[in-house]
Automatic annotation (TrEMBL):
Name of this chain's protein: D-3-phosphoglycerate dehydrogenase
All residue ranges annotated as the D-isomer specific 2-hydroxyacid dehydrogenase catalytic domain in the record: 34-313
Record has Disulfide bond as a keyword: no
Keyword terms of this UniProt record: NAD, Oxidoreductase
Organism encoding this protein: Brevibacterium celere
InterPro entries: D-2-hydroxyacid_DH, D-isomer_2_OHA_DH_cat_dom, D-isomer_DH_NAD-bd, NAD(P)-bd_dom_sf
């Protein structure tokens, strides 16, 4: 059995996934250069492959048609928006992912970004390094409302952490029933209610064809509110967000995901005031890296041996 590995993050922070693959008799073929791949470059890398482990590589109908030997596509993570699921089903290719493997890692980063923005840590550090000794008044989290858009594994992990800081939790999720949100200790709200009524807003939903947070919703956020996006860049109308920051309507925005990655150096959003930006590092922790890689290779082996995978994507 052989697995073509496209994502360079596989086993990067933990040797566990590579050891697990060896124990299962799975040979690894690393093709991690020029990640992410798409089109003919990807087709060439998958010549004769039965299994592939992808990061942000684009698995579309053309790739699947050109790789008839392919039996399983494993996502090194949870989001499968880069995989054409309908085309995979039509081609008889099983798609698996690793839901929850990086939930705690992303939740930790989300809280770090929230605290960094609320307490103006980046501004204070920049000032100190510039030779000044200034006072920066920030906002405490206790008693503030955190609006969580997307109340799956990551959203709930964020909620558990935020409750420890004394925050009130409001949640919107079109895929989770209101009673399930309430049972988890959050107040279910509509999208408009959560956006307009929250002191801080954090995003944990898959991206759609259009931004979830469009200009009108961004403009409805309370004056001085903060926004955190550690999910997908396409969730936010980035020009509208840049405008809100330039106009001072928001106290900060903290982004770990951008519509185009990496963003261009002259992207206006990168030059907006009170922006905290990180290069999509949410899943890059030791435990998450071990979980994602190990769970992926285990399911690949299951599929290649004709067994049901643990995490099929339907």
């Amino acid at each position: 059995m052989r697995l073509t590995v496209l994502t360079p993050s596989f086993g990067k922070l933990s040797s566990t996934p590579i050891a697990r693959a060896a124990a299962l008799g799975l040979e690894l073929d690393h093709r991690t250069e020029n990640h992410p791949k798409s089109g003919q470059t990807l087709i060439d890398a998958l010549a004769g492959a039965e299994a592939v482990l992808v990061g942000l590589d684009t698995i579309d109908a053309d790739v699947l048609a050109a790789c008839p030997e392919l039996k399983v596509v494993a996502k090194h993570g949870a989001g499968v928006d880069n995989i054409d699921l309908d085309a995979a089903a039509a081609a008889g290719v099983t798609v698996v992912n690793t839901p929850g493997a990086n939930a705690d890692a992303v939740a930790d980063l989300t809280m770090g970004l929230l605290i960094m923005g609320a307490r103006r840590i980046r501004e204070a550090e920049d000032s100190l390094r510039a030779g000044r000794w200034e006072v920066f008044f920030g906002t405490e989290l206790t008693g503030k409302q955190l609006g969580i858009l997307g109340f799956g594994r990551i959203g709930r992990a964020v909620a558990r952490r935020a409750v420890g800081f004394g925050m009130r939790i409001a949640a919107y999720d079109p895929f989770v029933p209101d009673h399930a949100i309430a049972e988890a200790g959050a107040v279910p709200m509509s999208l408009a209610e959560a956006v307009a009524g929250s002191d801080f807003l954090t995003l944990h939903l898959p991206a759609g064809d259009e931004p979830l947070l469009h200009r009108e919703l961004i403009e409805s956020m309370p004056a001085g509110a903060g926004l955190i996006n550690a999910a997908r860049g396409g969730l936010v109308d980035e020009p509208a967000l840049a405008s809100a920051l330039h106009e001072g309507n928001l106290s900060f925005a903290a982004l770990d995901a951008f519509a185009t990655e990496p963003p261009a150096a002259d992207d206006p959003l990168l030059h907006a005031p009170n922006l905290i930006a990180t290069p999509h590092i949410g899943a890059y922790s030791d435990i998450a890296n071990a979980n994602m890689g190990s769970w992926a290779v285990e399911d690949v082996v299951r599929v290649l041996q004709g067994e049901e995978p643990r995490f099929p994507v339907h």
